[in-house]
Amino acid sequence: MCNKLIRKGVGTVTERFTIRPVLGAEESLTGYLLRVCSKNFVDIPTIWRICQNDSIYKVDMNFSFNFDIYPEDIVKVDKLTRMCKLPLEKMQYHTFKSILQNYYGIGSSGKKLIGKEIEKKNRKYCSMCLKENGQFNILWQVKEITMCDKHFTSLTDSCTKCSSKQKYLHNNLIYYKCSDCNALLTNQIQSVISDATIQTQLRIYEDWRSLFRIPRNLLSRKKGLILNHRKLALILLYLTHPSPKISSRNHNNNNISPSQMRKFVKLVKGDIDETISLRNCLSIIRKVNITFKQLSEVKVPLSYVRKILKSNKKEIGDCLTPWCKYQGTKEKLKLISEHAKGKSILGKNLYSRISVCTECWMKFGFCKKEKKWECLHGDVDIINGLITLFNKGYPKAVISRKSGLSYYTLEYYLGYLTYNNLLSKNAMEKFIDYLNSHENELIQSFKLLRNFERNRETLAQKAKELFGWKNEEVFTAYWHSKVQEYIIFQSNERNVRLENKELLEAKTKEVLDNLKSVDAEVSMEEVASYVQINPRTLNYHNINKAIQEHNDEKRKALSNIEENEIKKSIKVFVGLKGKSQEQIFVKQIYKHIGKTPKYIRNHYPMIYKYISKVAKESKEKQRVFKSQKLKEVIIYLYTNNLEVNFENIALYMNVSVWYISSYRGVFKGIGELIRTTIDELESE
């Protein structure tokens, strides 16, 4: 029995499938649709086209997995539920939408993350289950599930006869046949698995079943009943690290990694607003041997929460520089960011913390071995020794030999002595005054020298090449307080990224403003070349969406112009044919407008229908016209005493005798027409 709805095409909203099988307990939506197709003698592409989402250009079976992840992306779910007579809420529990919605929230990032856990290309199945009930379990598509929990046999995605993998959705699956060799999937051989694997797989099944209905006390109402990842992070921290002292240092915990611990602590404190991936969450709760359902029953002590929320202030030490007016105080000391520490300094001493005095710009580190604060690189001792040698009047060559410092290293320290006025004679006072009055220009100069700062010789050479500075001028400028502030606190990787991001945002804003005045479409490559970044990077700044919106608007405007031109061209063509009373054929119209039927059907479906309508109406008019003319010819022949036969009719109708004798079109039943016409004439 062929389904009436499908035969007619897209029916009214009240039409449904004639036969609607009962939806299985854990049956996937795609599996159910396969059974619906089997009962109603239709195929999947037909159902898809009927319920097709307006945003989908065409039915593409490569994206059929979306039926089981987020069907709203490809079909009109309300229409699909009416056709299958299924409640919307019930249907979503037979897809991964409920997990996606409650765990990540509806969004492209959530769909990508949930998609990583699901097999989207090939169909996994249990032959014995298909033979018994013909249902595909929704959980079989989870990547980490490899066993049927009913028969304790391995799931497979390949035909045992031809070894070809089964596509996620294929018309052969309606009849449980291989998509390649047509072998029955219900007769496939399956392997039995070990007891240990069975227990592991049963635990995985339990975890995923609980995810379909996440306990409400783990959901955040503020965000629309989405999993409260801050609360989840707190519970996971408590389960994996019950000690009130949270630290990733000297970490010895197999249940959670140091990076995960740091992330969870930041989540609990509210420093970041991120999600805990489903894979990490399941991995941790399995290690601590607790189910997702039991997770909601864990009570975290208030004292534990307070300990995490309490900020740990790090000791920064005291300034140890003799010539600094803040010596022995913490007033001007600041901790340097983690990445600036480096793993080792001087090749042997490891420092847990590093601080800098923003008055004298000397750096100090807490030596883990000695358990005390000391000056990095021994700079204070080196500078004290150089002060003595310079004040005695030794030339640079002698001082370099006595101190054991290379030429550029000596210039480096001499720049510090000069800028801080630690020598009895200072020949750079005017230059220092110039630097103080041109601080902005100075910072811009060192932004260009930023990549050469660690190599003193290269720094001096590049400064001379770019600005014509002498060596003593380079290193005097280097120790300027604004330059040191920039190098230590601003010229790090993170701040450079932020600075580059601000520049990118400014440039892209300019691009987006210019887009409004552009009439043509703009490609991602054009914008990327203007902003001077990789085209893919535009996706991370949502610029691709703005470009897409611009192109859609321009495309729509051009489409409206083209549509009007096509309508006008058709109107002219129909008018000309109407005057000559010729029949209008579909092919002639498409040839006249210079477009293919496929192009018109895809871009202007209303015009496509109109062309068909015009051709049908023209055909009907020609039938009436020819029928009338045929009757007139018969009357003419009879009244003029001419023989009414096919040869004479063909002569006056300007058609071949063969065409009349074929009895097609208006000549169908011509013999009866001749007799009735003659009878009418004789009766008159």
Structure overview:
- The chain has 684 residues and is mainly alpha-helical.
- The protein folds into five domains: 171 residues, no CATH class; 80 residues, no CATH class; 111 residues, no CATH class; 69 residues; 102 residues, no CATH class.
- 52% of the residues lie in helices and 3% in strands.
- The protein contains 32 helices and six strands.
- A four-stranded antiparallel beta sheet has the order 3-4-5-6, with no helix packed on it.
- Strand 4 and strand 5 form a beta hairpin.
- The radius of gyration is 41 Å and the shape is elongated.
- The two termini are 54 Å apart.
- The N terminus is likely disordered.
- This is TniQ domain-containing protein.
- Keywords: Coiled coil.
- InterPro entries: TniQ.
- It holds the Pfam family TniQ.
Blueprint of the fold:
Layout: H1 4-8, H2 29-40, H3 44-50, H4 66-69, H5 77-84, H6 88-92, H7 97-104, H8 108-115, H9 127-132, H10 195-211, E1 219-220, E2 226-227, H11 229-240, H12 258-269, H13 278-287, H14 292-295, H15 302-309, E3 333-335, E4 351-357, E5 363-367, E6 372-375, H16 379-391, H17 396-403, H18 407-419, H19 429-437, H20 439-448, H21 456-467, H22 471-478, H23 481-490, H24 493-515, H25 524-531, H26 543-580, H27 586-593, H28 597-603, H29 605-639, H30 646-653, H31 657-661, H32 670-683
